[in-house]
Amino acid sequence: MARAKLISRIIQYTILAIMAIFVFIPVLMLVFGALKTRGELLSHPYTPPVPPRWENMIDILQTPIFWQMLRNSLIVMTVVTVAVVVICSLAAFVFARMDFRGKWLSFNLFTLGLMFPINVAILPVYFVLRQMDLIDNLWGIIIVQTAFQLSGNIMILRGFFTAIPAELQDAAYIDGCTVFDFFWRILLPLARPALSAVAALTMIVSWNDFLVPLVVLNSEELWTLPLGTMQFQGQYGSDLALVSAFITLSAIPTIIFYIFAERQIVAGLTAGAVKG
Prior knowledge:
This protein has 276 residues and is mainly alpha-helical. It contains 14 helices and no strands. It is 78% helix and 0% strand. The relative contact order is 0.14.
C-alpha cells in the first residue's frame, strides 16, 4: 500500500514538473531575449545571456511613453477593481440574503452575461461607446471592463454570502443592526477572503486586457501597456531584443502581484462556508 502511494506521488510530481517546464520555457526565452543584444538573440536564441545585457531594460525605462502607459494601466486597473468589488458585493448581498419579487429572474439575467464574452460583444459595445462619446477615453475602457467582470464575480460572492448562517443575520437584527449595518459591519469582514479573490482576479484581467483598449483607444498618450506592446513591437519590430525587454517589463507587475495574491485567490475561491 505504501509502495503504491509512493509510485502515485512520483507520477503526480513528474506530471506537474513537465507541465511547469512547458509553462516556464516561453517565459525564460522572453527574459533571455531581453538580456541579449539583437545579434546574440538571432544567433543564440535559446541559450542564457552570458553576460546579461541590461541596456535594453534601461532604454525602455528611459522612454517616457513606457511610464505613460504604465500610469494609464494603473488608473484603469484601480478604478475597475474598486468598481467591481463595490458593485458585486452589493449585488451579491441582495441576491444571497434578501427576498423580493423577480429575484431569480434578475439573477439569471446576470448569469447570462457569462455566455457573452467581450470578444463576441465587442462590435455592439463599440457602437454604444461611440454614441456615448467615450471612444478614445479611458472611461470607455473602465466601463466595459467593469461590466464584463460583474457576472462571474457576483456568482463568487453570492456563493460565499449564502454560506453564512441565517442565525447570524437574525442575531444581528435582534441586537439592533439595520440591513446595511449587517452588510457593512458583519458580512464584509467575514467575506474578506472572497473579496480579496475578486479584487485579485479583477486586477489581473484588467491589467492584461488587450482587446478593449485596442478598440476604444486611438491616441498614443492613452495607450495601456498591453496595447503599447503591440505598438512598440510594430515600431521596433526589427530589434527583437528591445521588444522582448518591453514585454518583460510590462509583465513584471502582473507576475509580482499574482505571487503575493495567489493565496488570497485560492482561499477566496475555496471558502464555501463559515464555521461558527
